């Protein structure tokens, strides 16, 4: 993904037998990046069944959903995802998106339809435990019962329990070891 401020794009490559890569195509997300490395993981996420690709557009506050058809992508949705979405995680029919702005650092939940589309879960936003947090990543536990958010500033790990309705508990704050 380019993360360009004026037109964020997903870039596809072909890999030769010797491992070299050559660009094949570019797919506009219809959104904007922020023009610099946003230093987080999973701003681009492929669904477990490889049918959908989700791309965060932090410069335009949305996420683009693409249908994957072999080596081709087709945009099916662009959805508002909070203030500066940086990372997305998926588990079953639930997605959580991590927002990284100082004004709204936290996570917001969405349901995932069978066609890959995202629908916001009402009242799902949860702030991180530190108001000065610079989030690093968001990830579901393997069983989908917990949501884990790491922080780069303040060195923390917040763990939320995922309820049956997709909403989260308040975070359990876990300071990281002094050496990170």
Biggest β-sheet description? 5 strands, antiparallel
- CATH level-four homologous superfamily name: YVTN repeat-like/Quinoprotein amine dehydrogenase
Number of helices: 0
Shape: globular
Cα Rg: 16 Å
What is the CATH architecture annotation? 7 Propeller
Quote the distance from N terminus to C terminus: 28 Å
- Which spans of ≥5 residues are poorly predicted at pLDDT below 50? none
Structural class: mainly beta
The residue-averaged pLDDT reads 91
Q: Which fold name is given in CATH as the topology?
A: Methylamine Dehydrogenase, Chain H
Oligomeric composition of the shown chains: single chain
Question: What is the CATH first-level class name?
Answer: Mainly Beta
Quantity of strands, as a count: 15
Fraction of residues in β-strands: over 45%
Helix percentage range = under 10%
Q: Domains counted in the coordinates: how many? A: 1
SSE series: EEEEEEEEEEEEEEE
Description:
This protein has 180 residues and is mostly beta strands. The chain has a single domain, classed as Methylamine Dehydrogenase, Chain H. 0% of the residues lie in helices and 51% in strands. The chain is built from no helices and 15 strands. It has strands spanning 9-15, 21-28, 44-46, 52-57, 62-69, 72-80, 85-91, 94-99, 106-112, 118-120, 126-127, 134-140, 146-153, 156-161, 172-175. A hairpin with a 2-residue loop joins strand 13 (146-153) and strand 14. The mean pLDDT is 91.
């Amino acid at each position: 993904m380019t993360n360009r401020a004026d037109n964020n794009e997903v870039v596809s490559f072909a890999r030769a037998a010797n491992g070299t890569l050559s660009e094949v195509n570019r797919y506009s997300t219809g959104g904007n990046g922020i023009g610099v490395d946003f230093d987080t993981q999973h701003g681009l996420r492929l669904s477990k069944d490889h049918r959908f690709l989700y791309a965060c557009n932090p410069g335009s506050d949305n996420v683009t959903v693409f249908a994957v058809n072999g080596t081709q992508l087709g945009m099916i949705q662009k959805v508002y995802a909070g203030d500066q979405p940086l990372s997305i995680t998926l588990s079953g029919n639930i997605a959580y998106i991590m927002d990284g702005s100082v004004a709204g650092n936290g996570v917001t939940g969405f349901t995932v339809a069978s066609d890959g589309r995202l629908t916001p879960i009402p009242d799902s936003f949860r702030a991180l435990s530190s108001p000065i947090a610079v989030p690093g990543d968001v990830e579901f536990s393997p069983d989908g019962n917990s949501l884990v958010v790491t922080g780069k500033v303040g060195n923390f790990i917040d763990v939320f329990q995922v309820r049956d309705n997709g909403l989260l508990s308040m975070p359990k704050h876990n300071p990281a070891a002094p050496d990170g």
